[in-house]
């Protein structure tokens, strides 16, 4: 759940100046979306908890960020048709206990990836946060957040038809906490 530091863009293995859009699932306190705003022309962020969503709508005075309320496993499919051009997706829309919100599932990652794979036709870089949580949950590690059905194999199986590169990068919490996936455009 750590915010995405803009310094991560130096480690991503492509020319990021070619990417004009940034899509985030899980706005939470807004640390990520506000810190990366200067680097993109259009930004989209989805938050499931109405309190956080309303706070951002009231706080933000610019015109580059579009805020959406709802379950990212569903809403992402609604907004992808609005997006054109190469895009970076930061997938962090999951329940993390405490004050965070939850949708139908604690971790709608597979649904988010399915929307990207079926609806988004251009080149994309996907940053999946909290890789160290994959496979954990109430039955395996006693944590309240349910990641038990989420695996690297499951993710790779979903994106394989378009996958051109994959690697991990650190977060402020763990060494290999972010999975980076490069997807080619659909023909």
Report on this model:
This protein is α/β, with parallel strands linked by helices. It has one domain (6-183): Vaccinia Virus protein VP39 (Rossmann fold, 3-Layer(aba) Sandwich), CATH 3.40.50.150. It has 5 helices and 7 strands. The protein has helices at 31-36, 50-59, 72-79, 109-119, 152-159, and strands at 21-25, 42-47, 65-69, 87-91, 124-128, 163-169, 178-183. Strands 3-2-1-4-5-7-6 form a 7-stranded mixed beta sheet. It is globular, with a radius of gyration of 15 Å. The model has no long low-confidence stretch (mean pLDDT 88). This is Methyltransferase.
Helix coverage percent of residues? Answer: 10-25%
Side-by-side strand order of the widest sheet = 3-2-1-4-5-7-6
Radius of gyration over C-alpha positions, nearest whole angstrom: 15 Å
Identify the overall geometry.
Answer: globular
Q: What is the assigned CATH homologous superfamily? A: Vaccinia Virus protein VP39
- Count of individual beta strands: 7
Q: In terms of structural class, how would the helical and strand content be classed?
A: alpha/beta
- The SSE order reads EHEHEHEHEHEE
Low-confidence spans: none
CATH architecture verdict: 3-Layer(aba) Sandwich
Provide the CATH top-level class.
Alpha Beta
